[in-house]
Amino acid sequence: MKHGDTLFTGYRFRVERAVQTTADGVEHPRDVIRHPGAVTILPILDDGRICFVKNYRVAVDETLIELPAGTLEENEPPKVTATRELAEETGYRAGRIEFLTDFRMSPGILDEKMHLFLATELQPGEMSLEPGEEIETMLVDRREALEMVRDGRIHDSKTMLGLLYYETFCRAEE
User: Is this model's pTM higher than 0.90 or not?
Assistant: First the structure.
C-alpha cells in the first residue's frame, strides 16, 4: 500500500488518500482516517460498581453511556493517557491501572488502535473537563451494566467490548 495525499487535517486526526495495489496489479484509492490512538478505561469501585460517563457526542447528536476514554497525546504512553483521562472525566484516581487488551475501532476506514485498561482501588476527586465537554458520571452495578448492553441503553462499541471482555476473560479468572 502506498501512502498518498493528505486530504484534510483536523485537531485530532487527518484523512489521507492511500493506494492499495491488488494482486492483479490494479491500484485502488482508499480514503483512510489516520488517528494517533486512544484509550478506554473500565473503572471498578471497591463495591463492584462501574463508573460510566454520560457523554454528549456531536457526531451522533446523542448522549451516550460510555466508559471514560481519550486520545493519546504525542509520545504519551497509553497507561499515562488512561490515568489522565480517568481523572479528567470522572474525578477518580486509580491506585491500580492494568492493561487488558487493544483493538481496532473501525479498520475499514480508520487506523485507530484503542487500548483497554482496568482501573481499581479508586479514590474520588475533582473532574477536569476540557472546554465543550458535557460529561456526567454514572455509577452502575455490574449486572445492571450488562443488562444495559443487552437492552441497548449502552450501544457504544468500546464500552460494550470493554464490559464483555472483562466479563468473559477477567471475571472468569476470579
Answer: yes
